[in-house]
Amino acid sequence: MDHPCRQFPVAYPRSSPRPLNPVRRPAFWASVAIVAAVTLSGCATYSPQPLGDGHGADSVAKLTAPTADMPTPALASHRFDPSNGLDATEVAMLVVANSPDLKIRRDALGIAQAQAFAAGLLPDPQLGITGDIPRSYNGGLTNAYSLGISQDLSTLLTRSSRKAAARNRVKQVNLDLLWAEWQTVAQARLLFDQVLTLRQQQTRLKAEQTALAKVGKYVRTALRAGNLTYDMASAGLNATADVRRRLATNAIALHQAQASLRNLLGLTATAPLRLTGPAYRPQPTSAQVQVALADLPKRRPDLLALQAGYRSQEAKVRAAILAQFPALNIGFNTARDTGGVITNGFSLGITLPLFDRNRGNIAIQRATRQQLRDIYQARVLTARSDMQRIVSDLATLDRQARTLGAHVHELDAARRAAEHAWHAGLLDWPTYLVIRGNALTADLDLLTVRQEQATQSIALQALLGNTDLATSRSPSAKASKP
Hints:
This protein has 482 residues and is of the alpha+beta class. It has a single domain, classed as Up-down Bundle (Outer membrane efflux proteins (OEP)), CATH 1.20.1600.10. The chain is built from 12 helices and 4 strands. Strand 3 and strand 4 form a beta hairpin. Helix 5 packs antiparallel against helix 11 and helix 9 runs antiparallel to helix 10.
């Protein structure tokens, strides 16, 4: 008699092969290896990118300005040679190539291009594998499995709209970058002019300080000798103090302007800033202004960018409307049950549009489209108004500069005559100081008015949508660049 705990081998019918553990089957591992290889073959790899130290260049010689990257022909054709100092055009070239803000905007363009690439990708199909292993080996049982693949078809319905939205978004970012380049060039020219003007004012104030030192010495000598009282000498003392105050105020403004220009160029705070040549003084004609006003929406990069953004939003509205249709998922599978029966089938999944129907997203996209439409209308209106205002301001500044120029010429002649008369003892020093003070104020006022003229002219040229008047490259050419 056999022991009750003795194990007997199980007999399997010849028609039902002995079940095997899937992990021991070579075909199973071969399938897994193939799926893994296909899945991982196109995967990206990770590589770290550490942060920079945030230091700018300590010399202009370490900066480059590739002419191929310039946004206008006038910049692209200019010979770049910083060895003899930077002129207004070379400063603009360096700003385009090295401005930290423009680098960030170019990074945004790279993100938009990556998003456009992602919008055109199809969703990956889903592969499902299941297996069942009988725990009791009754006759006729075998390992069961199920293998299926499915694909979401609803994304195909909106793919063309999503791609159109992404393409127009890339155009918008590219045009915004071009507009930012033009504005940065205008800012560089303004800072260049501001630095030169402040340096001229500094030179004029130092010359005045040197001239007043002789009067101050005379006043202090008279005070010590008892020939003057302090109330009588206050005019001479105050004149010297006023020039010192103006020098200090001007020096602070000069430091700020130079720091802004260095930052725009990507230079360190202590980098030498040698500027040479005249300031940039554009003079748009009335005919150029009228032509620009007539076709402003076709020429200004910021307006063209808003148009591209509106087209992108139109595509998003279409995609949202298409997405209200039922989502569809279709798949095919093959399976074998534990009884050894092999079946082939398909699966179909559909979303029933009973409650959501994407109505919320459609409302959001339509409201966003209306907002962009109103923003565009407001921008065009503001641009036209600003241009007309600047034209009027320039006419006023021109008249003021001519009148003030004649006044300065007269006061300069009076100052020179008064200086000769005072040295000859024919003019008292209080009257002499009054004449010098009036001439100094007029000289500084004329420099300020001329700088304001340059500021308004550069601003008008930028608002025209053309930083080099008739020589600028078409915005569409820039927008077509990848």
